[in-house]
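Step 1: inspect the first sequence and its C-alpha cells.
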Amino acid sequence: ELIGRFISRDIVNMTTGALFAESGAKVTLLDRDTERGPKVAADIGGTFVETDVTSEESVQNAIDTAVAAMGKVNTAINCAGIGTAEKTLGRDGPHSLEHYQRILNVNLVGSFNVARLAAAAMAKNDATEDGQRGVIISTASIAAFDGQKGQVGYAASKGGIVSGTLPMARDLQREGIRVMAIAPGIFLTPMLMGLPEEVRDQLAVDVTNPKRLGDPREYASLARFICECGYLNGEVIRIDGALRMQ
C-alpha cells in the first residue's frame, strides 16, 4: 500500500511527489524552496516543510510534521544534491576546501541525516506480514562510478551513498527497513532546461539508447517500483540509458 510517503528535497522530488500522490500516497515534501514547494504540495494534496537536510533539528521537525500530517512515515526518498565544477588543482589554485565540504555535507551527510531520522520513525510502524516497516531510497549518480574531471567533490559524495547502501540495509534488517539507491544519468531538470537546445542535444548524443535526456517521471517510476518490489534491498540501480561518462 502507498501510505505515508516521505519525499526529501531537490527538483526531482516535485515530480516524484506528484506521481506518488497520483498512486494514492500521502506525501510530505521537504525543500528549501518556500515559493514552489508549498504550491506543489497544495496541488498534489500534500504537506510542505521548509527543511535544511544538513540540520538535525530541521530534519527532525520535518519528520515530526510528516508523521502528524500522514499518520506515519514508511518511505523516505532523498534527492538533495549540489555540485560545483572544480578541478583538484586548477588555474586559480587548489580546489576550494569549503566547496568540497559543502558538497559532502549536503549530498552525503544530509542524505544520511534524513535516512537515520526517518528510520527511527519507521521503526515505530506496525510490521507487515513480511516483517516490513519501511524503505529508504537515496539518490546517487553515475558520477559515483565514472565521474568526469571537475567532479571530485560530487563524485565522492555520491560514491558515499553507493557504498553506504548495503551496510545501512544490514543495519536496519532487524527493524524491517529496506535501503536502496538510484543512480541517475543526465536528467532533464530545470537546470538543464535553461541551457540552449543545441547544448541539450549534444549532451544526449553520448547516451546509448534512447538518445535523449532522462525524464524526472522515469526516476519517479523507478522509485515507485522499488517501493512495490519488496525483494529489492541493499542495491544501487543505474537509470542512465547505458550512458558511461567519458
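Step 2: inspect the second sequence and its C-alpha cells, then contrast the two.
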Amino acid sequence: MLKVGICIQKGGVGKTSAALALSQGLRKRGYKVLAVDVDPQENMTDALGGEVDGVSLYDVMRGQARVRDAIQNIRDGLDLLSVGLSATRAEEELQDLGTDAYFLLNKALSGLKYDFCIMDGAPRLGILSENIFCAADYLIIPLLCDVFCLSGVENLYGDIMRVSKDTKKKPPKIAGLLINQYKKRQTMTAILEEKIREIAAVMGTRVFDAKIREGVDIKKVQLIQGDLFEDAPTSGITKDYDAFITEFLKGVKHG
C-alpha cells in the first residue's frame, strides 16, 4: 500500500479538495483506495458522506479499537478512515509518549490491503501532521500562487526535516507542489510561479505541470457528497485533476 499525505500548514488552499480528487480519481482508474481524514475538522469525511460518530481512527491510534472497526465503506473501491473530533485533544493526550507518538498513525495503518492510502492533513503543525510525515511514502503539497503560501511551504519543509531528525526516520519523498485556483492571466502569477519552482528545487522536488483552475464545480460536488469524476466528468477542474493524477502516477513507485 502506497501512503500519500496531502499537507500544508495553511487553510484555504484546496488541500482537502486535492485529497478527495486524488482518492476518487485513483478509484476511477481501478485502484483500491483508503481515504484517511487526519483533520479533526473532518471536512473530507463530510464531503464523502462518512459517519462522524462511532469508532474513529483516533480510537485506533490510542489502542482502544481495531482498525477494521473504524473503516467505513463509501463506495466500491473507496473506503474511509476518519480521525474523529476527539483527536482535537491529541496534543495533550499523547505528549507523554515522546517520539513514539509520531508513529501511531503508521502503526494503525500497518497490514491494511489497499493500493493507495491518501491522507488529508490538518492545516496546522501538530502531532497529527507529524504522524503523517512518519507514515507517508510521499507528500503532495498544494498551494496557491500567493506570497503567504510560499512561506507556508518553506515552513512545512523545515518541519518535515525536524521530525525526521527527531525520530531518526528518513523523511517521505515530496512528489511535488500542486498549484490550485490557478489564474493564468494575472501579472503576478508568472513571478510567483518562478519563485515556487525555486522553492521546489531547494526541496528536491518539482512543480506539477498540471495546475488546477478556479471554478465552482468541485464545491457543488462536495455539497452533494458526490464524486468529481462521476458527477462533473466534463468540468475543466475534473480534467485538470485527471491530468495531475496521470502525472503523479508516472512519478511514484507503486504496485
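Step 3: confirm your contrast with the notes below.
The beta strands are 2-6, 33-37, 72-75, 78-82, 116-120, 138-143, 173-179. The mean pLDDT is 90.
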